């Protein structure tokens, strides 16, 4: 299989302007993009994106992502440091360590035969916690000594929660886990604490065990059914080899268990079993790059961890981790990546977690910008001066007042039937209706039969969208084989449904069809409905009360304990058995969010008027069975909107469903978002659409993709071509470059919307010629 074929799997949907937008955006004409802007504004209204913080301030218009280098995204680490790709080389420590590792592996090629003569210890049960710590016992079992990495401060923390005796047992259990990484959970004797009656103390216990022991131990709280003497005790158990090691079935890179055991010394010398690295990509999906690396390394996608996928039509830099992959191997394979690079290698003891991401820094170039009042200006210099005045004012307002934290349009899909429409059907229990919406297509897509290389400036549908429509039509005509052959790979939900329902005995088994869809896609539909409700309610809240904090507004309990005084939070509120959300998801399942288990409470009239709280503290719930709703008219509006025909006739207080994935617990989201420090705005004058206005990380290193010259390295299909000899020079235009940081759950397009106002943001629509 060729590298090209492998790297393209799985193909993902490019985020483009929708099919109802203008057929052609001629970047040489100032008013050409307006139809697309109007269509974009109509979409915003459809999905509840209606209000502005400063509706009366002047905005401007501009084209977004005309070139993918116009959208730069760099992760912001918890330290506040902005992640950049600064080297593709191995650090000296890894060069030396891995060279020694290779030499040891070569010299020890006969080790498996020798080790085979030793008695096997894997099946022997681990002794109880009192005996497990005895060195003599471990030596008799043939186990190697392992030094605990728990700090004195962490030991003191555990002792303050569990007491000295239980802490000693926990540490002994952890030592056993380190000594026997290949053993299963059942081989380790769990530790049970004394009763911990305080809920906050139990939560701290769950969190501390997870943090201190790097997810090698897990906890659960005993239920009331255990009896009054055993209720509210915490059981600490080993995760076991199967959960701890996400790849290779506990085998080494060459599939040899003995080599894997011997290799533990190598990983310790390198710094840990997880290789952290920086992934830089241009105009490419995160999963495209990860899938290619997996294929070349012969490992499963779950071996990789990262904080989230990044936009395709962009230049992005993100931190990733891979389990038991050596840096020199990843560096070598990384050279084969197209439109992507890997660097910044470092071995660590733990994988990447969601808590390792603070947010993202965006550098966004908006092209062909126009501003109110420019009509009477004769020179581009005068227009640029006007632009600077408006932009600086907008940037100041944006920095201090923020923007309504709407879910962006990408949350709702690119087809006429949105993901929220599908989610609404699912929650109504109409799975047949949900299937019909997923398999719907526009008739216009069937009429677009221009070949991929045809010269056309009016490509309404991509080739993939056309093939999708043809496949679904063939399926409806009973031609399952033809349909599956024609359906592009990226439409996995459609494939799952058609494959299942295409069999005669399953033709009405809509639930079976839906359950075959990859879980994160199934969750996407119902989460999109929650997002729609949140957007609509957020607009209502802002239009009703504005920036004033009022009685009944919700605030997060954990954020404001110092302000509560004698006010009691909801003592009956329960947390999950681990005290927090799981924060090390697999690559194929990223539905969890650290905010999902936050607790909120309504403010009293006295608190709302105390000036202790401001609008940036206010949260709104996503509808679910485990949230509280605002204690004012906004809480009533949830019931009014969700119960309406537009809201699906649903009840916000009845969000449990028989199917677990569609039984929604809910969550909370800040009403207003603010950018981080360092908001910058600049105005540039340029001529051609091929002119790049910002530097990528790769260019800062003096490099480009594929050895191209800088001026052509990032040329886009549809981004404009060099004029023929003797052509008239293009007129000068205005571009705006914005730089700002946002939290990880915040949409940059919604931030731009506040700055540019209604109809100002115009997504660029490349001419379709393939995917």
TrEMBL record:
<feature type="region of interest" description="Disordered">
    <location>
        <begin position="709"/>
        <end position="728"/>
    </location>
</feature>
<dbReference type="GO" id="GO:0005634">
    <property type="term" value="C:nucleus"/>
</dbReference>
<feature type="domain" description="TRUD">
    <location>
        <begin position="402"/>
        <end position="674"/>
    </location>
</feature>
<feature type="region of interest" description="Disordered">
    <location>
        <begin position="242"/>
        <end position="262"/>
    </location>
</feature>
<feature type="compositionally biased region" description="Low complexity">
    <location>
        <begin position="247"/>
        <end position="261"/>
    </location>
</feature>
<keyword id="KW-0413">Isomerase</keyword>
<feature type="region of interest" description="Disordered">
    <location>
        <begin position="94"/>
        <end position="153"/>
    </location>
</feature>
<comment type="similarity">
    <text>Belongs to the pseudouridine synthase TruD family.</text>
</comment>
<dbReference type="GO" id="GO:0003723">
    <property type="term" value="F:RNA binding"/>
</dbReference>
<feature type="compositionally biased region" description="Polar residues">
    <location>
        <begin position="111"/>
        <end position="124"/>
    </location>
</feature>
<dbReference type="InterPro" id="IPR011760">
    <property type="entry name" value="PsdUridine_synth_TruD_insert"/>
</dbReference>
<dbReference type="GO" id="GO:0001522">
    <property type="term" value="P:pseudouridine synthesis"/>
</dbReference>
<dbReference type="InterPro" id="IPR042214">
    <property type="entry name" value="TruD_catalytic"/>
</dbReference>
<dbReference type="InterPro" id="IPR020103">
    <property type="entry name" value="PsdUridine_synth_cat_dom_sf"/>
</dbReference>
<feature type="compositionally biased region" description="Acidic residues">
    <location>
        <begin position="719"/>
        <end position="728"/>
    </location>
</feature>
<dbReference type="Pfam" id="PF01142">
    <property type="entry name" value="TruD"/>
</dbReference>
<protein>
    <submittedName>
        <fullName>tRNA pseudouridine synthase D</fullName>
    </submittedName>
</protein>
<dbReference type="InterPro" id="IPR001656">
    <property type="entry name" value="PsdUridine_synth_TruD"/>
</dbReference>
<feature type="compositionally biased region" description="Basic and acidic residues">
    <location>
        <begin position="125"/>
        <end position="142"/>
    </location>
</feature>
<dbReference type="GO" id="GO:0009982">
    <property type="term" value="F:pseudouridine synthase activity"/>
</dbReference>
<feature type="region of interest" description="Disordered">
    <location>
        <begin position="1"/>
        <end position="23"/>
    </location>
</feature>
